[in-house]
Each structure stands twice: as structure tokens, then as C-alpha cells.
Amino acid sequence: MDMQSSLLDRLLAAGLLIDTGIDGLYGRSGTFEDVIARFEKLIDAHAPADARPEVIRFPPGMNRKHFEGSGYMKSFPQLAGTVHSFCGCELDHMNLLQCIAEGGDWTEGQKATDVVLTPAACYPLYPVVAKRGPLPAGGGLFDLQSYCFRHEPSKDPARMQLFRMREFVRMGTPDQVMEFREDWMERGQKLIAAVGLDVELDTANDPFFGRAGKMMGNSQREQKLKFELLIPVTSSANKTACLSFNYHQDHFGTTWGLTTADGETAHTACVGFGLERITLALFARHGLDTADWPADVRKALWG
């Protein structure tokens, strides 16, 4: 039995995760949710004391037009998820029921709605902020959390199809957003150390699709636009990215017409926390009974 299956089996047996019959789609127990809630409070405690981010919580679905405008399908079509629905008449409904009764594929009659599943917590933010007009003189800072979807079913419990991301997004001048990212790269390492996890900082790239995607990934690494904090979850040799620090340059600024107070195209950066992944790392490292976790870890999370 490999380490991934072993950890997943133990989590399911302990009732921390709940099997739904779909790889990467799990229920969470109250204990699992409590750890996530405690860790989110720890994130807040490690944020700059003078930071006053605008708190926004988007649903796990976003505007299809905004999704299309983001260019996500150009880079990650393999990960996207859409929302389809029945849009037929009574006869279509009768045919649908007959198809189900005969064991056919009833989804062929479904049509795409105006909602797609949110791929990253920050994606709904940019068009919303752009609609407001130019950013204030100091730029913008936002605190987000959302369920996100990636179509990559796996037995690895750290690679869920539906999971939560907590993000801080900075918008402004290149200097403002780079200072933000550098600051959080330091804060993130201290945050993870506070809960007794081993961590490694490394350059990374997003999983761009196809041959052109490999070139984009190489470019992203060469420019050091993306860093990740890697933490052992299912394997010590192949660690899991649990935090990411991303500099988008002016991509979203150009895409959505985001501008600074003086009319320049805004740059953006974000720090993202994979809440389920971090929680899984804690259970993998400290055991499945939170009462037995080290005293310093319990103090950091529960006070």
C-alpha cells in the first residue's frame, strides 16, 4: 500500500474525511473543520498588524463571462469545471426520465448555465474591483476565502477536486505588490514553523496545458513569478505545495483594466493558503488525535 492510500485510508477510518465514492471529493468531520478554523485565525495573527484588507467571501461559482475573460481556458482547460442544468420542456423531461430508467447518459441534454466553478479564490475579484474605477493611492489589499474546483481526481488526499483557498491579494504598483509578496514569503515560513511542520521554499510554475504550456511554465520559473512552500503530506520525498506566492505582473491589470490612482496599469500579487492541504499535513505529522498533538502546536492553534 502506498503512502497516499495509507494516509487516506487512515483519515477515512478515523472519520476525519468522509467518503463520497468520488476520488478527491470528501466530507469533513467537525474535528477537521475545527483545525481549519483555528489555522485561519493563526493566519490572521501572522498578518501585518497595520494591514486593513477588505474582506470578501465569494461563492464557489463565478460569472461565466468573467471566467472566459480571465483567459483560464487558454492555460488550464484540463482543470476547469462548468455548471450545466436541465433547460427543456415537459417532453424533454419525459425523455430524460426514460434515459435514466434505461441507464443511459442523461447529461447529454444538459446545457451550460452562466455559472462556472471557481478555479481560484482570487479570480472573481479582479473584474469586481476594476468596475469600481482606479485604485486608491495606496493600492488595494483584499482578504478572500472560497471553495475552489480543479478537475484532477486522485487517490492523493492532498489533491482534492473541491477544496478551500484563503488568499490575500495586493493590487498597486510593481514595488507595492513585490514588497507584499516578499513580506508574506517570510511570514508564511514563520507561520508554518509555529505549527511544527517542516517546510521548503522553492520556485514553481502553474500546470499550464500542452506544448506551449511547457514554455509558459519554464518562463514563469525563470522570472521567479511563483514560489511555493512545500510540506510533507503523503510523502517526505515528494512534498506538497501548501502555500503559494504569486506575482502576476500586469496580467490581470491589463485583462480587466485595473489602474492605479495615477492611471497606470495595476500589477497584482497574491499569497494563497491551501487550507485542506495544511490541515492534512498537520494530521500526517502530529497524528490523527488532536488531543495528542505537541503542546506548542496546540497552544499556537487553540491558545
Commentary on this structure:
- This protein is of the alpha+beta class.
- It has two domains: 263 residues, BirA Bifunctional Protein, domain 2; 33 residues, no CATH class.
- The two termini are 37 Å apart.
- This is Seryl-tRNA synthetase.
Write the layout of secondary structure elements.
Blueprint: H1 3-13, E1 17-22, E2 25-28, H2 30-46, E3 54-56, E4 61-63, H3 64-70, H4 72-75, E5 82-85, H5 90-101, E6 111-117, H6 125-132, E7 140-149, E8 162-172, H7 174-194, E9 200-203, H8 210-222, E10 226-231, E11 240-249, H9 251-256, E12 267-274, H10 275-286, H11 295-302
What key attributes describe this structure?
single chain, 303 residues, alpha+beta, BirA Bifunctional Protein, domain 2, 2 domains, seven-stranded mixed sheet, three-stranded antiparallel sheet, 39% helix, aa-tRNA-synth_II/BPL/LPL
What is the tally of beta strands?
12
Provide the residue-averaged pLDDT. 94
- Strand arrangement, major sheet: 3-7-8-12-11-10-9
CATH superfamily of the largest domain: Bira Bifunctional Protein, Domain 2
Question: SSE string, helix = H, strand = E?
Answer: HEEHEEHHEHEHEEHEHEEHEHH
Instruction: Give the radius of gyration.
Output: 21 Å
CATH C-level of the largest domain: Alpha Beta
Q: Percent of residues in beta strands?
A: 25-35%
Task: Just name the CATH architecture of the largest domain.
Answer: 2-Layer Sandwich
GO molecular function: aminoacyl-tRNA ligase activity
Protein name: Seryl-tRNA synthetase
Keywords: Aminoacyl-tRNA synthetase, Ligase
InterPro entries: aa-tRNA-synth_II/BPL/LPL
